[in-house]
Design a protein that fits this description.
single chain, about 400 residues, alpha+beta, four-stranded antiparallel sheet, 13 helices, 11 strands, binds flavin-adenine dinucleotide, FAD, flavoprotein, Acyl-CoA_Oxase/DH_mid-dom, Acyl-CoA_Oxase/DH_mid-dom_sf
Length: about 400
């Protein structure tokens, strides 16, 4: 187990500087254009693929870094560049992690390369869990997967919503109900291969922020996938369902809580994205406050402005510390006894929303225009308190973990 450290080693610093260079030279200059276009920035993803940032190898390297700092450091730098474009670059990782976590070696080897494509022909992947009536309440998911034993195929029916890269993905990972009696424990994940008949894109959403990232409904109408597309395989699923049925007999509520806990480990990554956006807005505000003059002196000369910047930086550093701690715990298999993953996501996402709003205030009228990036950063920051579990759900998870009570 690696000791917790707040100091990046030389290799990590090199990676951080390389990512920062890409974020500053490639992502940041393209941010306003793709925000306006509200389209997936394929050329930027391709650039990222060419230099090795858009690849499974890169994420696996950061993911398995025993210090736990690899992923948060990478996310912070890319999202410092721009949240919408960065999500287009890392969104495939959500689906890839779904396969890495639940898939067999064969499934990992077959599907993950198809999620990324290659630098000459980049592809993206989508992870489809949320539904119109199942957002925070994952257990009320309705998309059904029924096994057709004669053909060894699974038949998927339902509507997924809010899927990042939904409909434009080469590979979709779809979570569906295989046993409706078991709530979220009766769910399983499926690969939907490229070109599967019955999968189509529904509405594409016009969003408030992260507009360079494609978000859409995914409709499944009798979409048939081979038995080999069930992640982890049928035998493992049958064993898991049998165990869940036993546990459900003893207490249904505990089944639901356990499902919530499984998201804990991925939350520090989202927290780090929020830290990146917050830091970007803070830096713009600091620079502006030292150069903009009113009443014959820089506006930072006023405590009202200087103290805001002091608070902004303090919150960002606190958010990063919570994030690094949670990420180190997740990588080293430490149990989140106080929902530390949720704590990091809650604090960092709320910090990003607040700090980006403060940045607009410090820039005055300029902050409110698209001539400066902070209004975009503020629109982008709002997503962090919503996806991967809203702030209210994080508080629920923390409170339940601390108290052991089924708080509603
Ligand atoms: C841009 C974007 C990208 C996304 N990408 C993906 C993706 O790739 N894949 C995917 O599967 N999903 C994705 N999501 C879905 C996202 O995870 C959900 O939007 C989120 O989980 C919230 O669900 P909901 O929108 O249905 O809100 P609801 O669950 O309806 O919540 C509405 C409000 O009620 C509050 N609330 C609900 N229950 C409680 C409670 N028990 N206690 C207190 N307050 C409560 C919530 O906090 C929130 O404020 C994405 C969403 C967006 C907006």
């Amino acid at each position: 187990m690696a000791e917790f450290t707040m100091e990046l080693n030389d290799e990590q610093k090199e990676v951080r500087d390389w990512l920062h260079g890409f974020a500053a030279d490639v992502i940041r200059p393209a941010a306003a254009e793709w925000d306006e276009r509200e389209e997936t920035p394929w050329p930027v993803i391709q650039e990222a693929a060419k230099v090795g940032i858009y690849s499974l190898d890169f994420y696996a390297q950061q993911y398995f870094d025993p210090t736990g700092l690899g992923i948060p450091m990478a996310m912070e730098e890319l999202f410092w560049g721009d949240a919408g474009i960065a999500l287009s670059i890392v969104g495939t990782g959500l689906a890839a992690v779904g396969v890495l976590a639940n898939g067999t070696e064969e499934q990992i080897g077959t599907w993950i390369p198809q999620m990324y494509g290659d630098a000459n022909d980049v592809k993206v992947a989508a992870f489809c869990s949320s539904e119109p009536d199942a957002g925070s309440d994952v257990a009320s998911m309705r998309t059904r997967a029924v096994y057709d034993e004669a053909k060894d195929e699974w038949v998927l029916n339902g509507t997924k919503t809010w899927a990042t890269n939904g409909g434009i993905a080469n590979v979709h990972v779809v979570v569906a109900v295989v046993d409706p009696e078991l709530g979220s424990k009766g769910h399983a994940s499926f690969i939907v291969p490229p070109g599967t008949p019955g999968l189509s894109q529904g509405q594409k959403f016009k969003k408030h922020g992260i507009r360079a990232s494609h978000t859409a409904e995914v409709v499944l109408e009798d979409a048939r996938v081979p038995g080999s597309c069930l992640l982890g395989g049928k035998e493992k699923l049958d064993e898991r369902l049998a165990r869940a049925r036993e546990r459900a007999k003893k207490g249904g509520e505990r089944v639901k809580n356990a499902a919530m806990a499984t998201f804990e480990a991925s939350r520090p990554a989202v927290a780090a994205m929020a830290v990146g956006t917050a830091r970007a807005a803070y830096e713009v505000a600091l620079e502006y406050a030292t150069t903009r003059e009113q009443f014959g002196r820089p506006i930072i000369d006023n405590q009202g402005v200087a103290f805001q910047l002091a608070d902004m930086r303090t919150s960002i550093d606190a958010a990063r510390l919570l994030t690094w701690r949670a990420s180190w715990m997740a990588v080293n298999g430490k149990q989140f006894t106080a929902a530390e993953g949720s704590m990091s996501k809650l604090f960092a996402s709320e910090t990003a929303k607040k700090v980006t709003a403060q940045a607009i205030q410090i820039l005055g009228g300029n902050g409110y225009t698209r001539e400066y990036p902070v209004e975009r950063m503020h629109r982008d920051a709002a997503i962090y308190t919503i996806f991967e579990g809203t702030s209210e759900i994080q508080r629920l998870v923390i409170a339940r973990t601390l108290s052991g009570m089924p708080i509603r």
